[in-house]
Amino acid sequence: MIKRFIRRVLGLGGRSPQRVPPERHGIAPEAISPGARKVCEALRGAGFAAYVVGGAVRDLLLGIAPKDYDVATDARPEQIKPLFRRAHIIGRRFRLVHVIMGHETVEVSTFRAADLETVEKDEHGRVLRDNVFGSLEEDARRRDFSINALYYDPGSGEIIDYHGGLADLRKRVLRVIGDPETRYREDPVRMLRAVRMSAKLGFTLDPATRAPVRRLAGLIEHVPAARVFDEMLKLLLSGHASACVRQLRDEGLHKGLLPLLDMILEQPLGERFVTLALAQTDERVRTDRPVSPAFLFAALLWHQVLAAWKARQARGERSLPALEAAMDEILDAQCEKLAITRKLTATMREIWALQPRFEQRSGQRPHRLLEHPRFRMGYDFLALRAASGEVPAELEAWWRTYQDADLETRRAMLLPETGPRKRRRRRRRKPAAAPQAGPEG
Ligand code: ATP
Ligand code: MG
């Protein structure tokens, strides 16, 4: 009773939602994916409420093809699962159900209440667990932005809007539901989501939504690194990575994510390189071509590796061991903040380690490099380096021609073994017990 009164006074609830009929919002029932429709039908058939919610409703209203579908229901996970042939309960922090329908995975979540008093938080206000189930109204309130809290009712075709999401959509504004500072403290990742959504949709951040971000940016440090990594990946693969990274910088959010990124971006070569890599990634995402996260992270960190590598060589370390040590140094520092997975770091290392091998254009070495399983990625990386002015354009042009040429042309293209290099190589090789395969410094 008192709780409800306080909520009403704080403007946190008790409002009746706006219900907008289909002829006024324009989403046709057939626009909803078959999988999401079937999921809602099955839930409703079993006597539960079921709504399409989140990004899909938002995107359909904006005329964008939804990436995936989320369904919200009053059924509990253990009541949802038996209704479908292929369904799994997932998640620890939030338990939800993935229902597989042909090629589609529909994410079904039970209405949740972020009960401000009972919820478990850390000392910065971050919510650790909130599996308290709730009503539709409470579910709407715990969502991040007004435009993400629109519920499409497949029964009536209505859109239910508790927080003025339709009006914000029209104004192209991203607005946090409730008090922005509290909501960012509960989950600092919402600040990254704000950047990603506004870059993706071309929306402006509402002033109150934007204001606390710079001051609270440091809270991201307390979020588990794996979650930050997931969000960064979404951001970088959104097709709007350039805009997102620019906005991360503008909002002061990049510092905790990619340490030293601002330093790199201040050097003309580094800035050019990262800008080109992001633009290329966006272009690939938008034209539905595959993108390698490893390639992208390798690009984001390359100028740090390069700087560490040069510094080590200047201290007298030999080239290849120096490169290995530089890679370790940068990856160690980076993975503290951003839990880049092992599988990714292994590929990143391969891409970096191939780079010195492109300098060698005589004898058997170009042929051996061409046979390397990561040649293509290595070459694409070299092309970026050339485009940013870090290595001569002529080097990239040579490899571009070489890889497509016939055997005879390839042989003719080889550079002569240069005298001094050959002698140096021989001298170094002799004392080694077993000559190592691969590049020579
Ligand atoms: P997209 O899938 O296009 O990236 P989306 O809005 O669907 O965008 P999801 O991550 O799929 O994003 O989340 C689905 C919905 O869950 C969101 O629309 C929002 O309502 C809610 N949501 C997701 N993450 C949070 C969060 N950190 N805090 C509050 N609500 C969230
Ligand atoms: Mg989604």
Please characterize this protein's 3D structure:
By secondary structure, the protein is an alpha+beta fold. Among the domains are: about 1-180, 2-Layer Sandwich (Beta Polymerase, domain 2), CATH 3.30.460.10; about 295-415, cca-adding enzyme, domain 2 (Orthogonal Bundle), CATH 1.10.3090.10. The protein contains 23 helices and twelve strands. It has helices at about 1-10, 20-25, 35-45, 55-60, 75-80, 135-140, 165-170, 180-185, 190-200, 205-210, 215, 225-235, 240-250, 260-265, 270-285, 295-315, 320-335, 340-355, 365-370, 375-385, 395-405, 405-415, 420-430; strands at about 20, 50-55, 70-75, 85-90, 95-100, 105-110, 120, 125-130, 150, 160, 175, 205. It has an eight-stranded mixed sheet with strand order 1-10-9-2-3-6-5-4, sandwiched between helices. The chain has a two-stranded antiparallel ribbon with strand order 7-8. A hairpin with a 2-residue loop joins strand 5 and strand 6. Helix 9 runs parallel beside helix 12 (about 225-235), helix 16 (about 295-315) packs across helix 18 (about 340-355) and helix 18 packs across helix 20 (about 375-385). The longest helix is centred in the C-terminal third of the chain and has 22 residues, at about 295-315. It is elongated, with a radius of gyration of 27 Å. The chain starts with a helix and ends in a 12-residue tail after the last helix. The site of adenosine-5'-triphosphate has 13 residues, from helix 9.
Summarize this structure briefly.
The chain is α+β, with helices and mostly antiparallel strands and 441 residues long. It is built from 23 helices and 12 strands. Strand 9 (150-152) and strand 10 form a beta hairpin.
